[in-house]
Amino acid sequence: MAIVAGVDFGTLSVRVSIFDAERGRLGSGVAAYPLHRKREDPDYATQTHADHMRALLEAMPAALAEAKVSGQEVAALAIDTTGSTVVPVDEHLQPLDDYYLWCDHRAWREAAEITAKAREWKLAAIDWCGGVYSSEWGFSKLLHWLRHNPTLRGRMATALEHCDMVAAVLCGIRELEQLPRSVCAMGHKWMWNAELGGLPPEDFWVAVDPLLAGVRAKICGRFRRSDQLAGYLCPEWAAKLGLRAGIPIPTGALDAHWDAIGAGCRLGDVVNVVGTSTCMMAISDETKLVPGVCGVVPGSIHPAKCGIEAGLSATGDLFDAIARRAGASVGELSRGLEQYRAGQTGLLRFSWDNGDRTVLVDPELSGITLGWRLTHTAQDELFAAMEGTAFHKRIILERMAEYGVPVQRVINGGGIPQKNDVLNQIYANVFGKPVLVPQTDVTSLGSAIFAFLAAGVFSSVEQAQQQLCPSYRVVAPQTESVAVYEDLYQLYRKLYFEFGARDELRVLRRIASRQIPG
Questions:
Q1: Alpha carbon distance 465, 262 (integer Å)
Q2: CA–CA distance from 425 to each of 118, 382, 386, 387 (Å)?
């Protein structure tokens, strides 16, 4: 019997799950941490390293207790986190500030500057990130921090993705050159590309802003895929967590990428990891450019395949915002939605409330709803928003297919599809093909799979998936609804690109940003 711990740091909480190689999930523990927002600045989203580690110390014993196993039985530990979630640290690897969470978009100006300079320089690396650098990604956030923290920037020794920071702490790593650097995070969010010599060259970053002089050299360490080790659990943290010192910890990854593995992603699959946002994951044997996606990175999802990432910047967050404005929860507002028919609201909802991640890659876009009447309700808007996220995802699926990514199956992973059959049915009807939903929750299963690989229990990702991944229930498209959505989708697609190219939403955003204090 082999037992491992899979750790998944999400937007609002960490989940630790204890898995047995034969029996599957034995138990889980969850601990929350605060997300710091500012009403006057909707782009602001931060968390603290101390809160993350406190939550891990709460979740681990809870998971062990529910699983009824001793920490001494755990053979390996693997960690995934949100990203790009970035923290600057000093020479002792102590945080100089809070994390810029993945959904912090304060760096939208910096992202635009990086994109413009990359195009001016004809920088090849930007093409592998979809052609546009995002405010959700590492270098734009780091530049924003450098510009706004003149008293701290001289102390910055490096900056780390959350998955690498946690792995370094748990392994007791102190030397900068020994820091683990996830190919998954660095490839998708920092323009790291092995074939192009790693990170873009120093002179490019200096041309973006002289404040970036020397930063490329500071982003150092061991760049590794997830089938390679970050290190071994150090005695200090083994004692704190109640585990055995010296167990292997593989190089970490971004949560959605490992969630795709946990959902059973194979060649020909696209996995919608639907949570606060949506990440759409696919793997391929070939490495081909796909304009507008969040990166094409060999080894990022599956260590032996090329990973393709795309997605929406708001899904669950969008639904929550609609419900919150109505003074209800999403669950309460969803009651009765199963009676709605395709297109019956007369609303067309563009899910840009947190910007556009793919395929326009524009953080300055904002949500639009067309067709409002005096009689419309919050429930109507919620249904239209579910339809809108499906239309947007179809645009992404078509973009992937256009550039040679096979799309044979669509799997709805993540937490929301486990409890929202209306969403699953809408997606099947909009895509015009069956949607597969795992029979059980797969959160942290991906991290457990890589922990098993680190422990030598399975010889391949596929062998682990065959043993551990759940079967699917199939949500079939409904013929009448498919026809209605085909008409609506053609309208949505036309307006998506037309509105996305117009300047009015950007003007509104800039006017509002000038009113933010400081």
A1: 7
A2: 41, 15, 10, 10
The token pair at 290 is 């796909």
- Beta strands 368-370; 348-350: pairing state: antiparallel
Element (H, E) at 76: strand 74-81
Per-residue model confidence as pLDDT tens digits over 175-195: 999 999 999 999 999 999 999
Q: Which residues contact 361 (CB under 8 A, 6 or more apart)?
A: 130, 131, 132, 134, 292, 294
Please state, rounded to an integer, the average pLDDT across all residues of the chain: 95
Sign of the CA dihedral with 320 first, then 325, 330, and 336 last: negative
Instruction: Please tell me the distance from the alpha carbon of residue 170 to that of residue 258, in angstroms, as a whole number.
Output: 20
Residue in 104, 115, 93, 173 with CA at minimum distance from that of residue 142: 104
In 3D space, the residue among 451, 132, 400 whose CA is nearest the CA of residue 284 turns out to be 400
- Amino acid occupying residue 427: Y
**Per-residue pLDDT tens over the stretch 339-365:** 999 999 999 999 999 889 899 988 889
Confidence of residue 516 (pLDDT cuts 50, 70, 90): low
Q: What is the pTM of this model?
A: 0.92
Characterise 330 by phi-psi region: left (phi > 0), alpha (psi -120 to 50), beta (else).
alpha
pLDDT at 518: 55
In a 3-state reduction of DSSP, which class is residue 271? strand
Give the phi and the psi of residue 355 in degrees, each rounded to 5: 85, 180
Q: Which residue has the tokens 């029979």?
A: 439
Q: Is the dihedral of CA 167, 171, 172, 177 positive or negative?
A: negative
